[in-house]
Amino acid sequence: MKEFQDLKDSIRTIPDYPIDGVQFRDITTVLQNASLFKRMIEGMTKQ
User: Fold this and answer.
1) What's the gap between Cα 46 and its chain centre?
2) Which residue has the higher pLDDT, 36 or 47?
3) Which helix (H) or strand (E) holds 41?
4) CA distances from 44 to 14, 15, 39, 40, 41 (A)
5) pLDDT digits over 14-36, tens only?
6) Band of residue 13 on the pLDDT scale cut at 50, 70, 90
7) SS3 12
8) What is the maximum alpha-carbon separation in the chain?
9) Cα(2)–Cα(33) distance, rounded to whole angstroms?
10) Which of 11, 17, 19, 41 is disulfide-compatible with 24, CB 3.0–4.6 A?
11) What are phi and psi of 19, to 5 degrees?
12) Tell me, what's the pLDDT at 46?
């Protein structure tokens, strides 16, 4: 979704963590940014 592109761009992908073949999605950058975090929660609860 285009409206959530900034959220997607702020989530890091760490390949092969914790084991080979797994792509870990690190959302700490979203948690550290209050406006991004709010939009993420609003997007998750939108009905």
Assistant:
1) 17
2) 36
3) helix 34-45
4) 23, 25, 9, 6, 5
5) 999 999 999 999 999 999 999 99
6) very high
7) strand
8) 36
9) 19
10) 17
11) -135, 160
12) 87
